[in-house]
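tool_call: predict_structure(chain=1)
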Amino acid sequence: MTQETGGFAALDLNPNIVAAVLATGYEEPSAIQQQSIPIILAGHDMIGQAQTGTGKTAAFALPILNKIDVSKREPQALILAPTRELALQVATAFETYAKQMPGVNVVAVYGGAPMGPQLRAIRNGAQIVVATPGRLCDHLRRDEKVLSTVQYLVLDEADEMLKLGFMDDLEVIFDAIPATRQTVLFSATLPSSIRSIAERHLREPKHVKIQSKTQTVTAIDQAHLMVHADQKIPAVLRLLEVEEFDALIAFVRTKQATLDLAAALEAKGYKAAALNGDIAQNQRERVIDSLKDGRLDIVVATDVAARGLDVPRITHVFNVDMPYDPESYVHRIGRTGRAGRDGRALLLVTPRERRMLQVIERVTGQKVAEARLPNAQAVLDARIKKLTNSLAPLVAEAEATHGDLFDRLTNDLGCSARALASALLRKATNGQALDLAAVEREQPLVPSFAPRGERTERGERGERPDRGDRERRAPLPLAEGRVRCRTALGARDGIAAKNLLGAILNEGGLARDAIGRIQVRDSFSLVELPEDGLEKLLSKLKDTRVAGKQLKLRRYRED
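tool_result:
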């Protein structure tokens, strides 16, 4: 065993799991992994107190994969997560770590997706079920025995589950799985409600507590932009028009993505190359050398392929794909801002990744400012500036060396000096659009999102008016096909918009886009919901609790 693999191999994990972990770029287990994995492998119940971003997903995923019996086609491990986004993230992590374990099947169970395929996947032998409590209870109402073979239970972010009103659902789930199971609970905080759950449902649990280290990247100018996933390449191309960079590294998650983005950049005339795990070592060295000496300006890389890459002239890092955790983000952007130079890091964020952005900000202790994609005027100004800079060194001597030729050409062509200069500019700029109307026509449609301070439709952020203003403020106009519903829960009940959103998503089985604005007032809240099927939805939500209180959502009559 090499020294590089010693850290994870020393934890008595299956070599195939260790190999999959190393392939993701991790070399040494984090503190939470170092302490938790042996406890879970030994079969003990455990309470882990750790923030998101400390590596806790691997802390329970690796030992559970180690314990799974691949020959048994039945649910063996159940992981509960508070939100759809976290459930998908955890399920993806399990699939990543199980890549070299044929026969392991993972299913993510959450609201907003059809129930039939989820239940079939469980019945067809998915050994690992990652679920939100609300949707899982829906499945239990259809088949109360569906979890009867579960041997391992993990509650991830238990405090968040209770904030979202899932206490009753958790009790239903506890009753539906064998009492002989091993239970692991992770929570950033341990309020009395969490301690009560532990006392009732865990057996002599071991305790692990990890203090999250604040990571600082203060020397680097950071910003993020909200874009849809299918518009990332157009967004990168537009950003490059206005960013003044020397050399740049763009991070993506997959080998194919390195090839796709590098090809798009080359087609636009950039000196770019891909760097991924399929690149031979000698070719990798050539790419890095070319980046160092200026033959290349952009490298598109995966995290693993970029390991050890240190090029002082890198001024920009583009996180085209969101990193899996905050540590990877800090490691990525640390490629720039070296040796006292200025560095800039841009992060593209899709709507589903807003939560991970918040985690990155919390772990690093810094806000990642929101930026907007440049408009056509900004792109035009940048193009003209680049053209001006390229011509400036030539102007001083050009008349002396090419003045006579210019006079001859105007005479031979019978045109004005302005016409000839314009023709030469068109040739020199290779037909690039250099007027506003043309630039506007060629700009791809890249939806951007309002800055977080302005996003009030789902209440994720936004300035809080005074209480009196909240109560007096008129409801905002309704979108077509939506109706406004009211709950008596408000700010004075400790309710935030994200609590209402999470409860309705998980309990109501809606897609996120189906829910409109959520306006939290002092003594009540208003939620915009689809008019089609409203009564059925309200019936599903009738027993829903948020922060321990009944939601009691009703149609709001404004007349």
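agent: The chain has a mean pLDDT of 83. Proceeding to next step.
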